[in-house]
Amino acid sequence: MSQIWIATLVSSLICFLLKYLGYRIPESLLNRPAIQRINTLIPIALLSSLVAVQALTIEQQVVIDHRLVGLLVAAIALSFKANFPIMMLLAAASSALVYNL
Amino acid sequence: MRDLIYSLAQGWDFLRQNERVSLNPSSFNRRRVLSDSLAVAIPVGTYGAAFGAASIAAGFSILQTCLLSLLLFSGASQFAVVGVMGSGGSAISAIATGSLLGFRNGLYGLKMAPLLKLRGFKRLIGAQLTIDESTGVAISQEGRGDEAARYGFWATGIGVYFFWNLFTLLGAIGAGAIGDPAAWGLDAVVPAAFLGLLWPRLTDNKTRVLAISAALLALLLVPFVPAGVPIIATALLAVIFGSRAAR
Hints:
The structure holds 2 protein chains of 2 kinds. By secondary structure, chain A is mainly α.
């Protein structure tokens, strides 16, 4: 089985089990302030590192290219409260424009 | 004449509403909750097209892309899995990143369990639909009563599931039909998607400092450790930030 198949099926299984566990475990176990706080912070850390790695690296090198333009345009769109589809279209269009120049 | 009809209509409306209230204390305005739910489900669902396209650009097949939306069904985790694999990471780092991002759905389940009171097969379905949006709408409807909150959960969960999967397929087919992903800006769509998911979470200075530190740490680590590891490593930053605030 290829790596992509393993990633697809195993991550689906684990993510489903995580959802299901919430309905099965006693509330007192995870309902602590520190756990709740860390739980809101983990997505922030992961998502922002994903932004950086996806926009600024190729293989194992830090690279600045057309993707950064798309990302900056996305940030501007978000700061103007653009909705998701419009923000994505603007990011794709601006990045493609720079790439094709 | 027009005034008479108008006041009759108003009176009828008033009677109907009061009758509802007096006959059934748990009733609520179904249409209003449904429109709140769809207002979330449709835009979020169309976002699935971006996932479909990103997944194809990362080297996943149309089948694998659709399976992620059907089986995993949690946007941030799905983008993470294809993002890590697309940048050359191993399956293990893709699974670890996706799972860490999926952990919060378990905590949502914890919150939803006493409200939904599900058993058996319905609990499996309810669990699969427990995501940011369904939980968010359910909580926002609590002021209208538990019945409205439950309705909001199911309407949003089912709505997002339907539109997310539909648009994933459309995005995957669309992206498969074009040649070089970069020429269409698809390589910029992935970081923009993550930024869109991140943006509403940056509510104060602490979260902004964490976000910038995590991005810098990941970039610093990229040349030295295998792909995927820099992202997982930043979860430690979140743990440190989270425990420090306890004092």
